[in-house]
Amino acid sequence: MNQELESPAPHFFRLAPLVELVDAAGSVIMDVYRSANQQVQAKADNSPVTAADLGANAVICEGLARLWPQIPVLTEEGRNPFAPGDMPSLYWAVDPLDGTKEFLKRNGEFTVNVALVEQGRPVLGVVSAPALGLLYQGLVGHIARRRTDDGWDRIAASGPPAPGAMIRVASSRSHPSPLLAGWLQRFGQVAQRPVGSSLKFCLLAQGEADVYPRFGPTCIWDTAAGHAVLAAAGGCVTTMDGQSLAYSRPGSVLNPDFVAWGQPLPP
Question: Which of 75, 105, 154, 194 has the fewest CB atoms within 10 Å, i.e. is most exposed?
Answer without folding.
Answer: 154
